[in-house]
Design a protein that fits this description.
By secondary structure, the protein is mainly α. It has one domain (10-360). The chain is 71% helix and 2% strand. It has helices at residues 10-35, 46-67, 90-112, 118-142, 152-170, 184-209, 219-246, 253-263, 270-291, 298-324, 331-360; strands at 78-81, 84-87. A two-stranded antiparallel sheet has the order 1-2. It is globular.
């Protein structure tokens, strides 16, 4: 499906967006399918689906990085850490893996609360990442880490995207469900998601913007170490939570469901939920490589990432309505999609300017 293109080129960016779109649509449809409570649907509990989909997602990520040996990270500078000689980049890539370990489960948990629709959860998470990208750029420009300026077209696209998010949140719609701001557990999960994503995007852009010429590290190496670390933290957290639950130290219902999902898998369904998680795992490859795309600002990369997911989310809703008799996108959703395409127009103008700038500086 993909052909060889020059690193950092617009064609390479389009390829990443295409892959991200395809697998995000699959993810969107499968999440709706497994969590739908209508007749003929699995009606899985959110925590059950989280266990199985997370297993599939981190499983495919680890499989790829191990088979392709992306974990062989090369660096020009090594440091001693608890008696080990490691690339100095690990000092911040490993923390990024920790924050990824928070992002992965909180993403699915946002979809799982009763009364909060998948559409509403998606809007909240997309909007937060768009804002985070712009904030990270502003911080790193002031720190002297980011040497590029954010184009006016990028700022315009951010404003349009945020208007879309605001419209989705404020306009009444049957597909949105209850307000997430009225639920303490939802807001705790959402705030954890925002903070983890902020630090993760900051670290990814720090890595990208501080690479000196001649440095051997790669985005694939970053992804590999981050995913290995994230998987380790996720497994440790799950084991500790289950041990505390079984010993009676904690009695959280979600932990009981998680324990049951592992020890007594849902017959005939768990393997399909794991496979659904594989699609989400593949999305993570495209997502990270878009966020870290060569020569682009966090504002632009975050917009590309989230705008692609907004279009994919609407597509998933439409496909679910056609093939599984779900609800069709509301009129406000179609208006939002039209506004998103307007944002794409400004992003395209920005990309053309950035490509010329990078070519003049011989970065691509």
């Amino acid at each position: 499906m993909f052909f060889k293109v020059r690193e950092g080129s617009t064609a390479a960016l389009i390829q990443l967006c295409l892959g991200y779109f395809i697998f995000y649509v699959i993810t969107g449809v499968t999440v709706k399918y497994f969590l739908c409570t209508g007749a003929g649907f699995p009606a899985m509990k959110g925590m059950e689906f989280l266990v199985y989909s997370t297993a599939g997602g981190v499983g495919i990520s680890l499989l790829v990085v191990m088979i392709l040996k992306w974990y062989r990270f090369e660096s020009l500078r090594y440091v001693n850490f608890i008696g080990l000689k490691i690339p100095h980049e690990f000092l911040y890539i490993i923390p990024s893996g920790f924050f990824t370990a928070i992002v992965v489960p909180t993403t699915t948990l946002m979809y799982s609360f009763d009364g909060i629709s998948v559409m509403m959860a998606m809007v909240l998470m997309r909007g937060s990442v768009i804002i985070i990208g712009r904030v990270v750029d502003e911080i790193q420009i002031r720190q002297g880490i980011l040497k590029k300026k954010v184009y006016a077209e990028e700022n315009t696209a951010v404003l349009i995207a945020m208007a879309v998010v605001g419209m989705e949140l404020l306009l009444p719609s049957e597909s949105h469900g209850s307000s997430p701001f009225s639920s303490v557990p939802v807001m705790v999960i959402f705030i954890s998601y925002i903070l983890a994503y902020f630090f993760r995007i900051y670290i990814m852009n720090y890595y990208k913007n501080t690479r000196p010429k001649g440095e051997q590290g790669s985005n694939k190496g970053f992804f590999a170490i981050e995913q290995i670390t994230a998987t380790t933290f996720i497994v440790l957290a799950a084991v500790i939570a289950i041990v505390l639950f079984r010993t009676g130290v904690i009695s959280i219902p979600q932990i009981r469901i998680m324990d049951s999902a592992i020890t007594s898998p849902v017959k005939g369904l768990w393997i399909w939920a794991v496979l659904a998680g594989v699609a989400y795992g593949i999305v993570s490859f495209f997502s990270v490589f878009i966020f870290m795309f060569k020569g682009r600002t966090a504002t632009f990369a975050g917009l590309v990432n989230r705008v692609t997911s907004l279009i994919a989310g609407t597509t998933a809703t439409l496909l679910f309505a056609v093939f599984f008799k779900g609800k069709y996108p509301a009129i406000s959703d179609w208006v939002s999609l039209g506004m998103i395409f307007l944002a794409v127009y400004f992003m395209t103008k920005s990309e053309k300017k950035r490509a010329r700038e990078l070519a003049a500086e011989k970065e691509i």
